[in-house]
Specification:
Layout (H helix, E strand, L loop, with lengths): L11 E2 L3 E5 L5 H8 L15 H13 L9 E8 L2 E13 L6 E10 L8 H16 L4 E6 L4 H9 L3 E11 L5 E10 H8 L3
Parallel strand pairs: 5-6
Antiparallel strand pairs: 1-2, 2-3, 3-4, 4-5, 6-8, 7-8
The structure holds coenzyme A (COA).
Coenzyme A binds next to strand 5, helix 3 and helix 4.
Length: 197
Protein backbone atom coordinates (compact mmCIF):
# COMPACT_ATOMS: atom_id res chain seq x y z
CA UNK A 1 0.00 0.00 0.00
CA UNK A 2 1.35 3.42 -0.93
CA UNK A 3 0.53 6.75 0.59
CA UNK A 4 0.21 8.67 -2.65
CA UNK A 5 -3.49 9.35 -2.25
CA UNK A 6 -3.22 10.63 1.32
CA UNK A 7 -3.07 14.39 1.76
CA UNK A 8 -3.28 15.94 5.22
CA UNK A 9 -6.39 17.97 6.01
CA UNK A 10 -4.91 21.45 6.35
CA UNK A 11 -5.06 24.01 7.76
CA UNK A 12 -5.50 22.69 11.28
CA UNK A 13 -6.97 25.16 13.78
CA UNK A 14 -6.41 24.86 17.52
CA UNK A 15 -7.49 27.21 20.28
CA UNK A 16 -4.71 29.72 19.60
CA UNK A 17 -3.02 28.52 16.42
CA UNK A 18 -3.32 27.76 12.74
CA UNK A 19 -1.08 25.04 11.26
CA UNK A 20 -0.65 25.24 7.49
CA UNK A 21 1.84 24.35 4.79
CA UNK A 22 4.91 26.57 4.42
CA UNK A 23 4.99 29.21 1.65
CA UNK A 24 8.05 30.88 0.09
CA UNK A 25 6.78 34.17 1.58
CA UNK A 26 7.40 32.74 5.09
CA UNK A 27 11.14 33.08 4.48
CA UNK A 28 11.61 36.34 6.44
CA UNK A 29 9.76 35.07 9.54
CA UNK A 30 11.49 31.68 9.56
CA UNK A 31 14.83 33.32 8.72
CA UNK A 32 14.52 35.66 11.70
CA UNK A 33 14.52 32.92 14.35
CA UNK A 34 16.74 30.49 12.42
CA UNK A 35 19.49 33.13 12.31
CA UNK A 36 19.65 33.02 16.12
CA UNK A 37 22.48 30.72 17.34
CA UNK A 38 20.56 30.13 20.60
CA UNK A 39 17.66 28.71 18.58
CA UNK A 40 19.85 26.48 16.41
CA UNK A 41 22.17 25.36 19.25
CA UNK A 42 20.72 21.85 19.25
CA UNK A 43 19.43 21.71 15.68
CA UNK A 44 21.22 19.77 12.94
CA UNK A 45 22.07 23.06 11.20
CA UNK A 46 23.94 26.17 12.38
CA UNK A 47 22.41 29.67 12.56
CA UNK A 48 21.24 30.20 9.00
CA UNK A 49 22.73 32.69 6.59
CA UNK A 50 20.97 33.56 3.33
CA UNK A 51 22.10 30.42 1.49
CA UNK A 52 21.26 28.17 4.43
CA UNK A 53 17.83 29.74 4.75
CA UNK A 54 17.14 29.29 1.02
CA UNK A 55 18.03 25.59 1.36
CA UNK A 56 15.83 25.12 4.45
CA UNK A 57 12.93 27.00 2.83
CA UNK A 58 13.13 24.76 -0.23
CA UNK A 59 12.79 21.68 1.97
CA UNK A 60 9.95 23.15 4.06
CA UNK A 61 7.96 24.43 1.07
CA UNK A 62 8.29 21.05 -0.68
CA UNK A 63 7.08 19.20 2.43
CA UNK A 64 3.37 19.01 1.68
CA UNK A 65 2.56 15.37 0.92
CA UNK A 66 5.07 12.85 2.27
CA UNK A 67 4.83 9.39 0.73
CA UNK A 68 7.93 7.38 1.54
CA UNK A 69 10.74 7.09 4.07
CA UNK A 70 12.77 10.29 4.12
CA UNK A 71 9.85 12.51 3.02
CA UNK A 72 8.65 15.29 5.30
CA UNK A 73 5.47 17.14 6.12
CA UNK A 74 6.42 20.69 7.10
CA UNK A 75 4.00 23.08 8.79
CA UNK A 76 4.08 26.77 9.57
CA UNK A 77 2.49 27.69 12.90
CA UNK A 78 0.61 30.99 13.08
CA UNK A 79 -0.58 32.77 16.22
CA UNK A 80 -2.78 35.83 15.73
CA UNK A 81 -1.66 36.02 12.10
CA UNK A 82 2.08 35.90 12.94
CA UNK A 83 4.31 32.95 12.03
CA UNK A 84 5.72 31.84 15.39
CA UNK A 85 7.36 28.51 14.53
CA UNK A 86 7.55 25.51 12.29
CA UNK A 87 6.99 21.80 12.71
CA UNK A 88 8.21 18.79 10.83
CA UNK A 89 7.09 15.19 10.53
CA UNK A 90 9.65 12.97 8.80
CA UNK A 91 8.89 9.42 7.73
CA UNK A 92 11.62 7.38 9.36
CA UNK A 93 11.02 3.71 8.59
CA UNK A 94 8.67 1.28 6.87
CA UNK A 95 8.40 -2.41 7.59
CA UNK A 96 7.61 -4.92 4.86
CA UNK A 97 7.93 -4.67 1.11
CA UNK A 98 5.69 -1.94 -0.31
CA UNK A 99 4.43 -1.15 3.18
CA UNK A 100 3.69 2.47 4.08
CA UNK A 101 5.92 4.20 6.64
CA UNK A 102 5.19 3.05 10.18
CA UNK A 103 7.56 5.28 12.15
CA UNK A 104 7.89 9.05 11.91
CA UNK A 105 10.06 11.59 13.67
CA UNK A 106 8.76 14.89 15.05
CA UNK A 107 10.65 18.19 14.98
CA UNK A 108 9.89 21.75 16.15
CA UNK A 109 11.49 25.19 16.05
CA UNK A 110 9.85 28.24 17.62
CA UNK A 111 10.68 31.93 17.83
CA UNK A 112 12.00 32.63 21.35
CA UNK A 113 9.80 35.73 21.60
CA UNK A 114 6.77 33.41 21.59
CA UNK A 115 8.26 30.84 24.01
CA UNK A 116 6.99 29.97 27.46
CA UNK A 117 3.29 30.20 26.62
CA UNK A 118 2.59 26.63 25.64
CA UNK A 119 2.30 27.47 21.94
CA UNK A 120 4.87 24.85 20.87
CA UNK A 121 3.09 22.23 22.98
CA UNK A 122 -0.29 23.14 21.49
CA UNK A 123 1.15 22.99 17.96
CA UNK A 124 3.05 19.74 18.47
CA UNK A 125 -0.04 18.11 20.02
CA UNK A 126 -1.99 19.05 16.90
CA UNK A 127 0.77 17.57 14.73
CA UNK A 128 0.68 14.32 16.70
CA UNK A 129 -3.11 14.13 16.22
CA UNK A 130 -2.75 14.94 12.51
CA UNK A 131 0.01 12.35 12.06
CA UNK A 132 -1.88 9.47 13.67
CA UNK A 133 -5.18 10.49 12.07
CA UNK A 134 -3.82 10.92 8.55
CA UNK A 135 -1.17 8.20 8.22
CA UNK A 136 -1.12 4.53 9.24
CA UNK A 137 1.78 5.16 11.62
CA UNK A 138 2.51 2.86 14.54
CA UNK A 139 5.00 5.05 16.36
CA UNK A 140 6.13 8.66 16.61
CA UNK A 141 9.51 9.54 18.00
CA UNK A 142 11.75 12.50 18.73
CA UNK A 143 15.51 12.62 18.98
CA UNK A 144 17.22 15.37 20.86
CA UNK A 145 20.38 16.42 22.61
CA UNK A 146 19.74 15.68 26.32
CA UNK A 147 21.02 19.19 27.13
CA UNK A 148 18.02 20.54 25.19
CA UNK A 149 15.83 20.50 28.29
CA UNK A 150 13.09 22.72 26.78
CA UNK A 151 12.60 20.18 24.01
CA UNK A 152 12.69 17.26 26.47
CA UNK A 153 9.97 18.93 28.58
CA UNK A 154 7.91 19.41 25.42
CA UNK A 155 8.17 15.66 24.66
CA UNK A 156 7.02 14.90 28.18
CA UNK A 157 4.07 17.29 27.93
CA UNK A 158 3.09 15.39 24.76
CA UNK A 159 2.96 12.17 26.76
CA UNK A 160 6.03 10.71 25.08
CA UNK A 161 8.18 8.20 26.94
CA UNK A 162 11.90 8.74 27.42
CA UNK A 163 13.10 5.46 25.96
CA UNK A 164 16.82 5.79 25.49
CA UNK A 165 19.90 7.84 26.13
CA UNK A 166 22.62 6.92 23.68
CA UNK A 167 26.17 8.09 24.27
CA UNK A 168 28.29 10.17 21.90
CA UNK A 169 26.50 9.11 18.71
CA UNK A 170 26.05 12.55 17.16
CA UNK A 171 28.86 14.79 15.89
CA UNK A 172 28.53 18.27 17.39
CA UNK A 173 29.58 21.34 15.42
CA UNK A 174 32.57 21.97 17.70
CA UNK A 175 34.12 18.61 16.78
CA UNK A 176 32.98 16.83 19.97
CA UNK A 177 30.37 14.05 20.19
CA UNK A 178 26.92 14.63 21.67
CA UNK A 179 24.59 12.15 23.38
CA UNK A 180 21.04 11.59 22.12
CA UNK A 181 17.75 11.22 23.99
CA UNK A 182 15.04 9.22 22.27
CA UNK A 183 11.37 9.79 23.09
CA UNK A 184 8.54 7.64 21.71
CA UNK A 185 4.75 7.62 21.50
CA UNK A 186 2.86 4.56 20.27
CA UNK A 187 -0.46 4.74 18.46
CA UNK A 188 -2.21 2.80 21.23
CA UNK A 189 -0.89 5.25 23.84
CA UNK A 190 -2.17 8.18 21.79
CA UNK A 191 -5.57 6.45 21.42
CA UNK A 192 -5.77 5.72 25.15
CA UNK A 193 -4.91 9.33 26.02
CA UNK A 194 -7.55 10.60 23.58
CA UNK A 195 -10.22 8.42 25.08
CA UNK A 196 -9.22 9.57 28.55
CA UNK A 197 -7.48 6.28 29.42
C1 LIG B 1 11.81 23.33 21.99
C2 LIG B 1 10.99 24.61 22.01
C3 LIG B 1 9.99 24.60 20.86
C4 LIG B 1 10.24 24.65 23.36
O1 LIG B 1 9.66 25.94 23.51
P1 LIG B 1 8.84 26.30 24.84
O2 LIG B 1 8.53 27.74 24.80
O3 LIG B 1 9.57 25.77 26.04
O4 LIG B 1 7.54 25.41 24.69
P2 LIG B 1 6.02 25.86 24.76
O5 LIG B 1 5.70 26.94 23.79
O6 LIG B 1 5.21 24.63 24.69
O7 LIG B 1 5.91 26.50 26.22
C5 LIG B 1 6.06 25.67 27.36
C6 LIG B 1 6.45 26.49 28.55
O8 LIG B 1 5.45 27.48 28.75
C7 LIG B 1 4.78 27.23 30.00
N1 LIG B 1 3.36 27.44 29.71
C8 LIG B 1 2.70 28.60 29.91
N2 LIG B 1 1.43 28.49 29.50
C9 LIG B 1 1.26 27.24 29.04
C10 LIG B 1 0.16 26.54 28.48
N3 LIG B 1 -1.02 27.13 28.30
N4 LIG B 1 0.35 25.26 28.08
C11 LIG B 1 1.54 24.65 28.24
N5 LIG B 1 2.62 25.27 28.76
C12 LIG B 1 2.49 26.56 29.16
C13 LIG B 1 5.14 25.81 30.39
O9 LIG B 1 5.14 25.65 31.79
C14 LIG B 1 6.51 25.67 29.80
O10 LIG B 1 7.49 26.25 30.60
P3 LIG B 1 8.63 25.32 31.31
O11 LIG B 1 9.24 24.46 30.24
O12 LIG B 1 9.56 26.33 31.87
O13 LIG B 1 7.89 24.50 32.30
C15 LIG B 1 11.89 25.87 21.91
O14 LIG B 1 12.76 25.89 23.01
C16 LIG B 1 12.72 25.92 20.62
O15 LIG B 1 12.23 26.26 19.56
N6 LIG B 1 14.03 25.61 20.75
C17 LIG B 1 14.95 25.75 19.62
C18 LIG B 1 14.76 24.69 18.55
C19 LIG B 1 14.98 23.30 19.09
O16 LIG B 1 15.91 23.06 19.85
N7 LIG B 1 14.13 22.39 18.65
C20 LIG B 1 14.17 21.00 19.07
C21 LIG B 1 15.26 20.24 18.43
S1 LIG B 1 15.23 18.56 19.04
Amino acid sequence: MGLDRITPALPVRTERLVLRTVAPSDSAAIGAYCADPEVTRYLPFPALDEAGLAQRMERLVAGTAPVQVGDVLALAVEHEGVLVGDLMLRFEAAHGEGAPPSIAELGWVFAPSYGGRGLATEAARALVDLAFTTYPLHRLMARLDPRNTASARLCERLGMTHEAHTREDYPDRDGSWSDTSVYGLLRREWEAARSGG
